[in-house]
Design the sequence.
């Protein structure tokens, strides 16, 4: 081992070697992990704690995303837009170490009002280098219904309090005025104050630790390293897009109901591939809805990015560089870019959810070798609220069960059962914990047989949940992919099973439209909810009979389903 | 049974079965330590255990068999972890409350990598057709609201018979509040099918959270057949050779239990292998005056990292942790265990380049066979060991005390190939591999420290395992840790740790009430009940020492989903709400830096660990010699690369076995021991302490 090290020329020493790049990237990701872990352990609302409906990131001083945790993908694009709105509004030069900024003004940047974003700048001396950010879905922000999903809202004003690019604190502490204003406008003030504290705790983790990396390399070199990290991601995504033949691919899908009009809304995207760039044009989409299913423009952009996250090589670091080859255009006044002050309360899982499906559908058309059948980004959301008879306190219970839809079937395997597309880190809560906190009893929570779309590869099964409410209360429900709007199959595969929702009172079954707000329930009533199944891939007639028999044995399909969907005769009698 | 009477048999033996070697550490009547190693046999683990004892017997020149002169025999084993990882558990079924059969299938919707939309589900341990439902229901207060339908149980039993099931787990909703249905079901299964192993969630982990409890219970059932078989065979072989000591097995929370108990709760053995090293670290730390440690065990394929505070290992439950180590492919384990973070970084870890030109190291490893390229056994990719050979850290002619000669030309060949791909020099590539693996391990250390609210700079690093000495000294510079300690028994340190354990049983009661709602009497009742269960559990087990109890509480603010564990010191009569609140406030503030209203503090679980003390190895304090090592300790010099200098420089090499307590060295220097090499970096200092430990200090820190 006699190799002598040759001293590099001074200018070469400023270049960034692949090792430093990898080391820095890994450290930034570890910090983001730690931010998430801190929020998770300190938060109060089960929508954070059990369901992890929040995201954390480190962002560049221009607002671009540097590193993010594996939480909610569309939060990331939304967070970037929210931060840029704050920078535009207030200017970098006005910011000081320890400042806290808040925004949930989705029309200026973000997703929907319910997702609140907090940011703190990270400084090197008196120079602002980057930001720490966190976005979290609030359990309530006031407005026209507990949980602030307001079915029937016609303006964003009915959908909770908006903080437009506000300075919320200094020296690492919230202003009392901000906290008082916040608490006075939400339905669960104590619990939600704790949630805000958790977000702040997460940001502080980043300030401390990113500071150490900046110190180690110096601010200028740190800037060079992070811009190189972004360039690498951009290059990797461009390499992937290059594999898709140039051309235009149009995809159409439908959204059922807006809470005011019970009709199908048409949504359309045309994906154009030119070399290593991808252009998304949402022309052809219906005009904006009267009800709250509209996606804010920034939500449409963020969900488009997210679809790219989910389609391409999972090992490419997800950051602002990844976004550069993606170009989004949405006509103003449509469901995916409504005019202020149209309601946007259900933006993320309704209009914005369908953006995932549209873009993934178009990508699957463009690149059949990587295609998968519809794995819908949707939620049959159920909010039950009232006063807990044991404590006399108000409660709001958000059911995440309706997120556990079936995964779309893939090229070579069945879809995943009860598995949300965009929320891998979201967990459905334990039944025992729910019963401990809320006056409710779980009767069953099981996979619905035959709900997976038939195909050579079958879509995943959806989760069906039945609960009994133990006290008088009310519910709000909104969802999509009900009968008539099932997730479409791919290459001859059949649609996944439709969403289901009904209540049972004294053995009387009641069904509802796709969105319904503030319906009273009596103690003893039952609520049954189920999101859609995954769509099938390929002709069901070509499915391997061994797989059909396995599905029968495991109860994933019924004998009737086997015969109806696959033309398969159950041989139970012969056995 | 006189439990205080010391054992009369002279030899105390710990045997740790690893993937590559089976290590034995023996303490004789004078307290001297003997280390022995034989290659592990995958097909016949018990033979390795007996083999290493025979080898030790020869070394010691004993006339009568060692097995007949044992005062204590403690075993650490990876059998449970391997049975899970290799899917070699039993054919199992699972019985659960009607309507909840898919709890295990869904894993609460967990997915390993959100962006990977094309991967499949992990192979289930129990197939859906073997999940059997029984009509029954208990509510959250423990009231039976639907009586159990025994016809359903009998139907399930028929199914078990038809399917030739080997083991069954039973988990009903709220059984931790009222176990009567689980116990009745177990009784019926045992009556009808006495040959089947049965476990209930109430016995395994009586805690709230239906998914995690079901997961733990089914994992236990899955591991029961192979673990039972193995321990039965080993126990029989020992008895046949007239062993004088009952076999004790290390479990994941740092104590030992008898073989019978261990076979009934194999889920407790998942970390049986690495737990020994952590307990040994804590013990050594206490004796030698390093109470706050991060133990760092870097071997051939993986690196186990754990945090020790006030000489006590950090315990964790998956609910507290968010890192992947506590999830066994998404199936959580809801029992306390030592918070060990395992990452795929070892000497055999492979360096590779992704499509974007990014360099990565691990988690894939070449292990010991074929091993790194320099082993010359067919390994054809660059590994960490190859990089260390090129950097001059490892002497190819003195590896494992010259048992193996390495081929450095092969290392150069594979690292050159990697370097050419990204257009850098051999040396830059080797140094890059070294730095990347260090970053991976540094992030691993952050998980057990920073992520749990501890500043790593308040701790010393305790490094053992073959590869640790090369890397630990570089890692302390990056983390700002002052000292790294490398014990002289580093080679068989896990086996040493086995002998530092007490006999332990743990008990838990889910309370789930606001602290203000609990009076002294209620707390007292709960604690007393668990204490008496502890006394029963030790009935009949022989060992020296007194029965003691440790108390802790899992707590949070009402509405939070994650608990922190607070240890409650002192006798049980001192446990009061005020005391619990005081401890919670201190711990919560230390971790998160703020407090909320006291009336919102909730007590989730109360825990009692019953411990029976044992005889442990005594660390001998030696008299300090002079600062300057003997001449004979210096072996010579060689060219060694240091990132700090950006070049190779001629560096002194010492024989670690010839360094004496009190001796001091200045870096840069290489200290070679038969099973590990310590790389003292430029500006660092090293001193041998009174216990023979090698203590290296970060640049600028005085020893």
Sequence:
């Amino acid at each position: 081992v006699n190799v002598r090290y040759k001293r590099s020329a001074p200018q070469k020493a400023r270049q960034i070697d692949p090792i430093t790049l990898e080391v820095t990237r890994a450290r930034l990701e570890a910090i983001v992990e730690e931010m998430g872990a801190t929020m998770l352990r300190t938060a109060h609302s089960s929508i954070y704690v059990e369901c992890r409906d929040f995201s954390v990131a480190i962002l560049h001083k221009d607002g671009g995303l540097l590193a993010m945790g594996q939480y909610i993908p569309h939060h990331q694009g939304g967070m970037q837009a929210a931060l840029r709105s704050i920078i535009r509004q207030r200017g970098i030069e006005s910011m000081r170490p320890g400042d806290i900024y808040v925004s949930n003004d989705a029309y200026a940047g973000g997703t929907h009002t319910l997702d609140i974003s907090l940011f703190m700048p990270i400084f090197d001396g008196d120079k602002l280098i980057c930001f720490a950010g966190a976005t979290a879905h609030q359990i309530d922000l006031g407005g026209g219904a507990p949980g602030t999903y307001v079915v029937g809202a016609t303006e964003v004003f009915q959908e909770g309090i908006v903080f437009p690019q506000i300075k919320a604190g200094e020296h690492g502490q919230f202003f009392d005025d901000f906290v008082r204003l916040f608490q006075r406008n939400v339905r669960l003030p104590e619990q939600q104050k704790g949630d805000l504290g958790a977000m702040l705790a997460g940001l502080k983790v980043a300030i401390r630790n990113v500071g150490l990396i900046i110190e180690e390399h110096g601010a200028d070199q740190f800037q060079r390293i992070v811009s190189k990290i972004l360039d690498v991601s951009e290059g990797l995504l461009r390499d992937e897009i290059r594999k898709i033949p140039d051309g235009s691919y149009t995809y159409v899908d439908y959204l059922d109901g807006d809470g005011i009009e019970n009709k199908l809304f048409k949504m359309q995207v045309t994906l154009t591939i030119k070399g290593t760039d991808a252009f998304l044009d949402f022309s052809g989409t219906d005009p904006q809805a009267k009800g709250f299913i509209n996606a804010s423009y920034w939500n449409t952009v963020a969900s488009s990015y997210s679809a790219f996250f989910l389609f391409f090589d999972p090992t490419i670091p997800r950051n602002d560089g990844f976004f550069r080859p993606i170009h989004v255009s949405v006509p103003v006044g449509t469901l995916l870019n409504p005019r202020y002050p149209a309601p946007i309360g259900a933006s993320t899982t309704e209009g914005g959810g369908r953006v995932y499906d549209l873009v993934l559908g178009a990508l699957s058309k463009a690149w059949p070798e990587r295609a998968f059948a519809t794995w819908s980004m949707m939620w049959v959301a159920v909010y039950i609220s009232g006063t807990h008879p044991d404590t006399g306190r108000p409660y709001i219970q958000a059911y995440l069960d309706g997120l556990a839809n079936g995964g779309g079937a893939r090229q070579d395997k069945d879809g995943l059962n009860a598995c949300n597309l965009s929320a891998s880190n979201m967990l459905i809560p334990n039944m025992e914990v729910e019963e401990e906190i809320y006056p409710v009893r779980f009767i069953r929570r099981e996979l619905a047989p035959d709900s997976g779309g038939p195909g050579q590869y079958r879509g995943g099964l959806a989760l069906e949940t039945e609960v009994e409410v133990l006290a008088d209360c009310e519910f709000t429900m909104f969802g999509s992919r009900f009968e008539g709007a099932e997730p479409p199959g791919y290459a001859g595969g059949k649609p996944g099973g439709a969403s289901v929702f009904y209540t049972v009172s004294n053995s009387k079954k009641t069904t509802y439209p796709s969105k319904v707000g503030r319906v009273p329930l009596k103690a003893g009533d039952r609520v049954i909810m189920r999101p859609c199944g995954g769509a099938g891939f390929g002709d069901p007639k070509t499915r391997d009979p061994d797989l059909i028999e396995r599905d029968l044995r495991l109860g994933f399909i019924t004998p009737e389903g086997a015969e109806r969907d696959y033309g398969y005769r159950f041989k139970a009698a012969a056995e | 049974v006189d439990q205080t009477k010391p054992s009369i048999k002279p030899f105390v033996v710990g045997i740790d079965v690893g993937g590559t070697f089976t290590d034995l550490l023996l303490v004789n009547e004078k307290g001297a330590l003997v280390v022995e190693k034989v290659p592990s046999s995958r097909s016949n683990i018990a033979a390795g255990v007996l083999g290493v004892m025979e080898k030790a017997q020869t070394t010691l020149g004993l006339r009568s068999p060692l097995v007949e002169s044992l005062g204590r025999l403690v075993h650490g084993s990876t059998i449970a972890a391997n049975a899970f990882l290799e899917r070699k558990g039993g054919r199992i079924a699972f019985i659960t409350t009607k309507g909840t059969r898919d709890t295990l299938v869904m894993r609460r919707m967990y997915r390993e990598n959100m962006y990977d939309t094309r991967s499949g589900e992990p192979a289930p341990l129990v197939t859906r057709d073997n999940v059997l439902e029984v009509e029954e229901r208990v509510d959250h207060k423990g009231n039976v609201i639907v009586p159990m339908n025994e016809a359903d149980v009998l139907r399930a039993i028929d199914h078990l018979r038809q399917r030739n099931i080997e083991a069954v787990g039973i988990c009903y909703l709220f059984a931790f509040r009222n176990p009567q249905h689980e116990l009745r079901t177990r009784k019926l299964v045992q009556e009808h099918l006495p040959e089947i192993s049965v476990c209930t969630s109430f016995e395994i982990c009586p805690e709230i959270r239906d998914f995690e409890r079901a997961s733990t219970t089914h994992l236990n059932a899955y591991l029961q057949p192979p673990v039972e078989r193995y321990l039965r065979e080993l126990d029989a072989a020992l008895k046949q050779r007239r062993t004088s000591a009952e076999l004790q097995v290390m479990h994941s929370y740092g104590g030992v239990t008898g073989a019978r108990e261990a076979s009934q709760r194999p889920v407790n053995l998942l970390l049986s292998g690495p737990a020994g090293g952590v307990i040994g670290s804590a013990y050594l730390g206490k004796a030698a005056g390093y109470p706050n440690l991060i133990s760092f065990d870097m071997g051939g394929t993986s690196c186990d990292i754990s945090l020790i505070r006030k000489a006590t290992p950090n315990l964790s439950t998956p609910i507290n942790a968010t890192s992947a180590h506590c999830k066994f492919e998404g199936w959580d384990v809801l029992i306390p265990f030592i918070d060990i973070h395992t990452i795929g970084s070892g000497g055999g870890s492979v360096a590779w380049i992704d499509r974007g030109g990014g360099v990565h190291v691990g988690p894939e490893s070449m292990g010991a066979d074929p091993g790194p390229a320099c082993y010359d056994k067919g390994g054809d990719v660059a590994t960490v060991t190859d990089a260390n050979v090129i950097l001059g850290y490892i002497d190819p002619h003195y590896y494992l005390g010259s048992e193996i000669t390495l081929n450095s030309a092969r290392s150069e060949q594979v690292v050159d190939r990697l370097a050419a791909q990204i257009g850098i020099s051999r040396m830059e590539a080797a140094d890059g591999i070294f730095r990347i693996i260090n970053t991976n391990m540094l992030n691993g250390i952050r998980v057990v420290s920073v992520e749990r609210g501890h500043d790593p700079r308040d701790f010393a690093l305790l490094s053992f395992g073959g590869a640790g000495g090369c890397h630990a000294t570089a890692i302390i510079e990056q983390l700002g840790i002052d000292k790294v300690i490398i014990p002289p028994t580093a080679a068989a340190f896990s086996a040493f740790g086995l002998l530092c354990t007490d006999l332990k049983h743990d008990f838990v009661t889910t309370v789930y009430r606001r602290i203000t709602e609990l009076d002294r009497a209620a707390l007292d009742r709960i604690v007393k009940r668990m204490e008496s269960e502890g006394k029963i559990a030790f009935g009949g087990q022989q060992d020296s020492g007194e029965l003691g109890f440790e108390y802790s509480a899992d707590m949070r603010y009402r509405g939070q989903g994650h608990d922190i564990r607070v240890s409650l010191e002192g006798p049980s009569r001192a446990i009061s709400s005020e005391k619990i609140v005081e401890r919670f406030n201190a711990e919560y503030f230390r971790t998160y830096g703020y407090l909320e209203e006291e009336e919102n503090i909730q007590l989730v679980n109360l825990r009692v660990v019953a411990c029976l003390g044992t005889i442990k190895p005594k660390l001998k304090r030696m008299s300090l010699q002079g600062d300057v090592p003997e001449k004979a300790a210096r072996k010579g010099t060689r060219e060694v690369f240091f990132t700090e200098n950006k070049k190779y420089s001629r560096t002194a090499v010492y024989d670690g076995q010839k360094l004496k307590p009190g001796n001091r060295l200045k870096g840069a220097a290489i200290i070679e021991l038969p099973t590990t090499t310590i790389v003292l970096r430029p500006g660092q200092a090293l001193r041998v302490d009174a216990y023979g430990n090698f203590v290296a200090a970060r640049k600028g820190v005085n020893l």
Summary: Chain A has 13 helices and 20 strands. Confidence is low (pLDDT under 50) at residues 1-13 of chain A. Chain A touches chain B through 95 residues (CB under 8 Å).
